[in-house]
Amino acid sequence: MKRLAVTAAFFAVLVLVWAALTGDLAFLGLEESLWSPFVLPPPSTVGTYLWENTANGKIPLSMLITLRRLVIGYIVGLLLGIPLGMLAARFKPVNDTLGMLALGLQALPSVCWVPLACIWFGQTEAALLFVVIMGTLWSVLLSTENGMKNVPPIYARAARTMGAGKLYTLVHVTLPASAPFVVSGMKQGWAFAWRSLMAAEIYVSVVSGFGIGQYLHYGRELQRMYQVIGIMFIIIAIGLLADKIIFSPVERWLHRKWGTGKE
Asked: What is the Cα–Cα distance from 218 to 203, expressed in whole angstroms?
């Protein structure tokens, strides 16, 4: 509760500073704004936009559309990345080829995939999913590979001493022991996937439904800075909730289970 109170107080101070600089504290005599509302709108304008478009269903619908794209692409990236990472950890030729490719492509900004996706798939859902998969795949592959390599060899030797076969050792010893590293990679892959999708939705106009990124794009085109800032808040909130509710608790539990976390 103390940490939550400190966090809430910190963000409240930031909002108050923002309100003071944009003339949104008239009751305190702070009516002068340092910037035009078209450049930096006050918190009340942004809040009104979020409230009205949440009430009429536009923002919830766009969030569902974006999250559907994100979850589908992310799951496909996991289904490809984890097995490929296991192969890269197990076989040196795969590590020297596919592992090196993954290391290079992970450093490539996700937005670089958008032009290729548009040319290959057109202005379709497939283009968005492709960008999300590329944002997820390489991080998950590398984390799985590193996780399996960092498992203490004594675990496998102990299992084999007790009569376990190679497949049993892989499934019941090596994979569970590497789980904390894999989950960290999944967390990183989710962050990359989220950024990739936002970049893709800004540049790809899909007629099947407007996502959060497309509202951000049209806010910029129409010079509605209150819409741009409001959508940015939603993007940040979704990213924080995914980390705090899903990944961080699982990551801490796995580190405690395997004794790899901090005391």
From this structure: 10
Note the residue count of the chain.
263
Q: How is residue 158 written in tokens?
A: 């102990």
Rounded Cα gap, residues 17 and 24, in angstroms: 10
* Residue 194 near residue 70 (C-beta atoms within 8 A): yes
d(CA 216, CA 147): 37
Complete DSSP assignment for 74-98:
HHHHHHHHHHHHHHHHH-HHHIIII
Q: In which band, very low, low, confident or very high, does the pLDDT at 229 lie, cut at 50, 70 and 90?
A: very high
Main-chain dihedrals φ then ψ at residue 252, nearest 5 degrees: -65, -40
Q: What SS3 state is found at 22?
A: strand
pTM of the model as a whole? 0.84
Whether 156 contacts 183, CB under 8 Å: no
Measured between alpha carbons, how far is 149 from 247 in angstroms, rounded to an integer? 22
